[in-house]
Amino acid sequence: MHLQPSPTWYLFDADGAEPVRLLDDAGLAEPALSGTPQGVLASLAEAIHSKAQHLGERELRHLELFVALQRWRR
After folding, report:
1. Cα dihedral angle (56, 59, 65, 71), rounded to 10 degrees?
2. pTM score > 0.70 for this model?
3. Number of structural domains in the chain
4. In this structure, is residue 1 part of a structural domain?
5. For residues 30 and 38, what is the distance between their CA atoms, to the nearest angstrom?
6. Would residue 28 be called left, alpha or beta, if left means φ above 0 and alpha means ψ between -120 and 50 degrees?
7. Above 50 in pLDDT, residue 1?
8. Is the CB of residue 53 less than 8 Å from the CB of residue 35?
9. I need a labelling partner for 73 at 20 to 30 A (CA). Which of 41, 56, 64, 67 fits?
10. Is residue 2 part of a domain?
């Protein structure tokens, strides 16, 4: 049985600044972040959170690698 992700796990900490919650308690992207770079990250976190329970360990690791590789393509 997989541990289910909690919306409170999705915190964004930019360079030691105060962490920002990406998701609200319902697991939806925080509306206050709309239109910001953190908002894009919040939308991605929302999509992952909504489907994570259906993914196995292998799929989650592939997703983690995909997201990490996107960072280096910029």
Report:
1. -110
2. no
3. 1
4. no
5. 9
6. beta
7. no
8. no
9. 56
10. no
